[in-house]
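Bench notes, afternoon.
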Amino acid sequence: MEAHSYLRSRRIWLDGTREQVSWVVGVNNAGMERFRADRPEDPRNAPRGRWEELAVDHVFNIVAIGTKETLERVVEEMGPDARDNSIFHLQRDTYQPEDFYLEIAPKLASKAEAVLQLKRLLGATRLVVFGDNLNDLSMFTIADESYAVANAAIEVLEAATEVIDFNSNDGVARWLDLNADHGLPVT
């Protein structure tokens, strides 16, 4: 198949290890090359020489980049167990519209599950989230407020409480600067 993938692997975030983005060098398609070109100095980069060297422990998602048709075939070819126990997000890339991404993750590895766990650990009473892609929609359904950046996927824009400035204009950082309690003393 012409879709090549990269793996994001991370040990459980509480144990102090770092996230890694791994791929096999030399088998990348144009979409993967564009992805990597946007992140040349990413400290998570962990290239591998062979498929057997990709980490398989503690993988929290797999992302394949390719044509829509190829990625649809990947989903169709997954067995019923994988379809019943996994989350699949197939979408056109927000930033590279010529590319399609297929994200696959265990059902319990959704962003909603992660932010609910953080909310409990922090004792937070209110949940405000930000998103741009389909994998953010699960968070939007459980949040008190959800903000989509202006360049988000249409489904995310429609689900948002409000739309804020583009990612490229630091929309989330600007919103936080204007709206978050920074804990600074009032003078």
